[in-house]
Amino acid sequence: MRVTKNLGMLLLAIWLILTGLLQLVSISIPAIGTIMAVLALAAGVLILLGR
Questions:
Q1: What is the pTM of this model?
Q2: Are the CB atoms for 42 and 10 separated by under 8 Å?
Q3: At what angle do helices 32-49 and 7-24 cross, to 10 degrees?
Q4: Residues sharing a CB contact under 8 Å with residue 50, sequence separation 6 or more, in sequence order
Q5: Has residue 3 got a pLDDT over 80?
Q6: Which of 8, 21, 27, 41 could form a disulfide with 46 if both were Cys (CB 3.0 to 4.6 A apart)?
Q7: Structural contact between residues 4 and 50, judged by C-beta atoms closer than 8 angstroms
């Protein structure tokens, strides 16, 4: 199994995994909405830039 070298796709994968886990496990993490939003924005920008 290879890990992608594309940072945008890696951040997107992390975001998807965290989103799924947060739906399955009810853990109260302060400011998780802000953290997830920043992660999604960073992934989107890096994917658009092709990095």
A1: 0.73
A2: no
A3: 150
A4: 8
A5: no
A6: 8
A7: no
